[in-house]
């Protein structure tokens, strides 16, 4: 990240009652930290913010795809879009706790589906993120591979997850959302 200040500043406390309630909903249950800068930035547009929550919460909390596989798509999409903010928040909050290794996290930024860090199903979702990012579609070959591991509704969920995190990357890039002090940063290329 090269910006030293946000282009659209996140809301700061004290929050209006409705904003505080919505920010509380966006944070995980029992969270003991200030709402994320990303959430406080999206709250600048309260109506869109409230409409975005159901999809974001559905992807993270009620998905039909295993959380670890979801995180591979999120990490790879965040890396491809240059959304270091989102990659770093997810590395700390989800990726590492779900079992992504340092080598796998580095691979999502600098590696490939074929670099030896991934099982066949993990490599397939990694390639899904790559193909969607590059062409906005997946090849028949990749669909056939995904179909060995996932039902059609799960393949759609993976695609929607990649698309959602493209949207999040656009918000981060447009607003210049600054890093959370506790979040990870992209690992150096080795």
Explain the overall architecture.
This protein has a domain at 67-175: Up-down Bundle (AhpD-like). Helix content is 62%, strand content 0%. The chain is built from nine helices and no strands. The chain has helices at 17-26, 37-42, 46-61, 67-80, 84-98, 102-110, 120-135, 140-147, 152-175.
CATH superfamily of one domain: AhpD-like
- CATH topology (fold) name of one domain: AhpD-like
CATH architecture of one domain: Up-down Bundle
Low-confidence stretches: none
Kindly provide the name of the CATH class of one domain. Mainly Alpha
Number of helices: 9
**Residue-averaged pLDDT, rounded?**
96
| Distance separating the two termini | 19 Å
- Rg over CA atoms: 17 Å
Task: Compute the number of strand runs.
Answer: 0
Give the key terms.
0% strand; AhpD-like; mainly alpha; 190 residues; 9 helices
Give the helices and strands, then pairings.
Elements: H1 17-26, H2 37-42, H3 46-61, H4 67-80, H5 84-98, H6 102-110, H7 120-135, H8 140-147, H9 152-175
Helix pairs in contact: 1-3, 4-5, 4-6, 4-7, 4-9, 7-9
Give a quick rundown of the structure.
The protein has 190 residues and is mainly α. Helices cover 62% and strands 0% of the residues.
């Amino acid at each position: 990240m090269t910006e030293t200040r946000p282009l659209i500043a996140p809301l700061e406390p004290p929050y209006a009652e409705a904003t505080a309630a919505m920010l509380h909903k966006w944070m995980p249950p029992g969270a003991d930290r200030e709402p994320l800068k990303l959430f406080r930035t999206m709250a600048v547009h309260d109506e869109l913010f409230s409409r975005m929550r159901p999809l974001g919460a559905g992807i993270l909390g009620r998905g039909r795809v295993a959380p670890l596989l979801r995180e591979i798509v999120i990490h790879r999409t965040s890396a491809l879009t240059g959304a270091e903010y989102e990659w770093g928040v997810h590395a700390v909050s989800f990726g590492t706790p779900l079992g992504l290794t340092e080598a796998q996290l580095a691979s999502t930024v600098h590696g490939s589906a074929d670099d030896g860090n991934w099982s066949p199903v993990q490599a397939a979702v990694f390639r899904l993120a790559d193909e969607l990012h590059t062409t906005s579609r997946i090849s028949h070959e990749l669909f056939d591979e995904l179909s060995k591991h996932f039902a059609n509704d799960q393949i759609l969920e993976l695609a929607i997850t990649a698309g959602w995190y493209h949207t999040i990357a656009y918000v981060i890039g447009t607003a210049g959302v600054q890093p959370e002090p506790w979040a990870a940063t992209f690992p150096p290329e080795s």
